[in-house]
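During data preparation, a discrete fold description was generated, and the record follows.
___
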Amino acid sequence: MERSEKVYGLFNDSFPPVLDGVTLTVQNYVRWLTTFGKRTCVVTPWNPVKPSHDGYDLYRYFSLSIASRKPYRYGYPKLDPFIWHKMRTVPFALVHSHCPFSSGRLALYAARKQHVPLIATFHSKYRTDLEHSLPGWMVKRIMSRVMTFFDAADEVWIPQAKVEETVREYGYKGKLTVVENGIDLEMSDFASIKAFKAEQRLKLGYTPETMVLLFVGQHIREKGVLLIIKAMDKLRDLPVKMEFIGTGYATEEMKNLIRQLHLEDKVTLNGVISDREVLKSYYGAADMFLFPSRYDNAPLVVREAAMMGTPAVLIAGSTASEVIKDGFNGFLVEESPESYASRIRSLYNDRSAIQEAAEGASKTLTRSWREVMEEVVGRYEEIIERYGRR
């Protein structure tokens, strides 16, 4: 396909080797935009490890490590004159920011200097992020800047309809457009999924009677990782195995809690798994995906688990739970170790209910990135055309 000359700019405060849901989203935007023949670049803070970036340009700017949130880094574009020059000279057709902080400021600068449209996607509960490490007065000041950024965007996208509640709570009054995320772990049908799951359980050495539970994501308190460990303490009499994948500031606290409760034989912290095929094996081998987070808006990991026939157990009323119908494509519980443990115990004795939810999840929560990006490109082109008529 012939490549266009204008550049589609993607901006985010994290990019590989940092791995999280937003990073994965940006990676897939890049992958499919280049597949569709669009010239693309990524603008992100500098990292000591430089990822391969065949097929697109990567512009990185000065950053420092965030001690409390390793491996994340804080970008300081004000200290990097070269990145501002790039923002003035790269021939952008459109800029799409996936973060309102340092990379978002650069996206806004590029859009205004070059008179091109700015799209901003609202991915996270930013106030919760800030409250973890900053005093209240500073959170208020930064959130004012965050919302000023979204007010300045030509379009604001959200990945799930229920995210609107958070955006409105933060004070945004403009129009919102729902553009879902996709998944890159694809299976052809549920029969193939069942066969794959059986293979992966053998491969990873789980016995038939073992119930395998999985969490993938940042190891931070906001995602309920300590709640999961406490729930496991109430399931000692069952052959249940909990697998954690990821890292974060709460990792040491998790290790200490596992030791205190003597759960070393039931709970394993596997660290970061960046190999997507290995991660796919864990998704496939698991019976259920535990995600007791009120922090997340539209977690990709829940959809990835669904594609592998692994239904999620979420907190009723959380933003992430909007897509879950209890018992049909997942399970909803109260936010407590007791509620999680009780539902897991019930489902251990009713495997048919898990199978039913697994099939429902694989049919209702899975949309390929190709399909999503075909929609995105169409929206991009419409926005560029509309902007040009101003």
User: Anything to note?
Assistant: The mean pLDDT is 95.
